[in-house]
Write a structure and sequence with these properties.
The complex is a heterodimer of chains A (about 160) and B (about 575).
Chain A: H1 3-13, E1 17-22, E2 27-30, E3 36-43, E4 52-56, E5 72-77, E6 83-88, E7 91-104, E8 107-116, E9 119-122, H2 125-130, E10 145-148, E11 154-157
Antiparallel strand pairs in A: 1-3, 1-5, 2-3, 3-4, 5-6, 7-8, 9-10, 10-11
Chain B: H1 6-14, E1 19-26, H2 33-38, E2 51-52, E3 57-63, E4 66-72, E5 94-101, E6 110-116, E7 122-125, E8 132-140, H3 145-149, E9 152-153, E10 157-158, H4 163-174, E11 196-197, E12 200-202, H5 204-213, E13 217-221, E14 227-231, E15 240-241, E16 248-252, E17 263-277, E18 281-290, E19 296-302, E20 310-320, E21 330-336, E22 341-348, H6 351-367, E23 384-385, E24 409-410, H7 428-445, E25 448-472, E26 482-486, H8 493-510, E27 513-519, E28 529-531, E29 537-547, E30 554-561
Parallel strand pairs in B: 15-28, 17-26
Antiparallel strand pairs in B: 1-2, 1-5, 3-4, 3-29, 4-8, 5-6, 6-8, 7-8, 9-12, 10-11, 13-14, 16-27, 17-25, 18-25, 19-22, 20-25, 21-22, 23-24, 27-30, 28-29, 29-30
Helix pairs in contact in B: 4-5, 6-7
The chains are: A mainly beta (about 160), B alpha+beta (about 575).
Chain lengths: ~160, ~575
Amino acid sequence: MSIRKIIDWAIQDQKSEMKGNIASPFYQYQDYAGSWVWACDVDLGGGEDNVLRSVPVAANNREVIYAEQGKGVSLSRMGSGKWAITGLSKTLNSTVHMIFVSFVDDVFQISGRRLAGNIIRPLSYGEMGELIPPFGYGVLPYGLQGKFDAQGNFMEIVEWH
Amino acid sequence: MRYISAAFQGVLDNRRRRPAYKIYAWDPSGTTISQVAAAPGNLHAGLPTPLDITPYASEIAWSDKQLSFTMVDPKNFFHPDTGAYRNYLGDGAILRLVEGDEVLSETDWVTSFTGQIHGQVGWKKARHSGSVTAKVSVFGRAETQAFKRRKITTREYSVGTDLGIALYDICETFMGLTRAEVRIPFTLGRQFKHKVNQLAQVSPWEAITSLLEVVCYQPYFDGEGKLTYVNKSFQRPPAKVLADYVRCVELEVPENSQDGINKVKVVFLDAQLERVDGPYQKLGEAQVTTGFFSMHENLPCWWSEDHKQRADGTSMKVIKSVNSGLLPVGNESYEQKDDFHGEIEVEILVWVPILATVMALEYVAAALIPDETTSTSKGFTLPTVLSAPGAVALVAPPTGGPVTGVITMAPIQVVAEEVPGTGFTIPWGRVLQAQAMLGIMLIQMSIGSAQYEVWGTPYDYAYLEKMSIAMEDGLDYWLENEKEIKNDFVGSHDQADTIAVTELIWEKSLTRPRRVVIEDDPSLEVGDIIVIPDGRKILITGLSKKIKRGEVASLVIDGCKVMTP
């Protein structure tokens, strides 16, 4: 590992801003000190399966909570290492092309391609009735969040708060 | 691969070599490195005559990045304080190494190094031995710190401009290079995709690196001090094929104890702005007081106070209508005018003002209708003459005067129940006024304040941050060693895919270092691919050698295995 690389990584690790997409409606969240704050889940993109949960909205940014699910937000790192939503972002995480390359000795081969990038959004009435047997509409609450892949295929129900 | 004249190539091929070299130095006070690099020859008329310091140089070590040697200077020509030629080894002095063969004229030789002295050379005089030596290190142009540390902001480039134009601009404006010093194609075949493009607060070297990254090139200063590139793609023919091991001195597989990059992420902003919808919501509201006095009302309704919010699919919700009275008096309609606002139109029906006017006129007119009276009253009898005919004797005096006589009259008879001024009466005018008043009140009751809301879907445009990831197949999450490339000059996923795959293969190759020592071959350059006799390909990442008089140097080639599809 060259010193230069290690320094580059260290600089990158110290980055204090991130972009993400709102992956849930805003909700009130009680922090460890017992205070209620507005928060939401944030999808950081990049083909990651997990979303950042319960990201609080920074002070004086209350208008952010009116943003719709799916909109881009910018996150800032707080002193403790936790992230907070500090505003809306002009960029939006989008699709990811994944290309898998296999290496055998001196030979490489592209062994597969995949389109990644999940979308988390509320399920519609129709989807609740059709996508998730045997429950369906009437059993599942309206507003339930579902995760869809980049092609729009339903993947799973996202845990609701 | 460096250009070699046919004569020099012939000498290299027949292996009957009498290697020769020269080191030229220019005084930086009268010459710039740009002049030297751009000149067609070292002894060109347009260039100040260099000082040949070859006789003073020994223990010459050359690499593609640095030239170092020891000066033997018994007469103190290069003493940093007092030497007559001290400027030729002073800070910023320009030096060149030219290599060839004694059997060839110097015009057939190749310039294998061009660089500058940074700072001050070391100089030492030892009393016990009487020797005077100076250690000289000359650095290639890529080591110029100003290229890598100064932050620049370029002018803007419009969409469709080739990246090469921006690259040449940066080279000329911020690096002081002339076109003759740049060997990169003027057009790179990739265009700016965004409407306005600028490079801001990056060093010139970072700027040209970013631009070349789009075509998988890497900037590099060659031996002549000209800016060129290393192609990271291995899909190209080799520069040299070693048919046998005759020229090979050593083959080495050096130890590599680093974790290699096995995942490359290319992040770029899509040139097309993507529409991002907000939730369906109330965008604006309007209210108006209207009625018969107003035929037409236009109410502009903006989606935001600053008139900047865009919205789509808008519609009007009537909270309180102009028709909420007893009678429908008007039509309310809504039309979206543009992305930023719509207009509510309230149109009062034409009969309303007409009726109002007619009723008012009628009311006034009815006030003028008098109550009806007659000359005969029921229940009354007129006085009657009761005198019998002839009983009346009216005598008029002959001289005039009052007529005298007697007339008997029956008295007026009045019926008690038919006395005038008692009972009920309804004047016709009042009835008509009341009717007109009702009409006016009806119209007035039908007007008032109307209230509307406009609902719709607000939206804005955002850049989509797209990504291409090339990674080793079957890699577990905890084994990923990632390299991220952020480059907004990448215009499409296809381009990003190519960069990601090329970079991953490049990084994988770098984890397989190889070292080959061969007879010196001045035609080889960094970035060339050579094929060793067993068929393996090696990409040259570094070159070095020690040069001695009258001896064919051993060229140390540091490289890595080339991965092929």
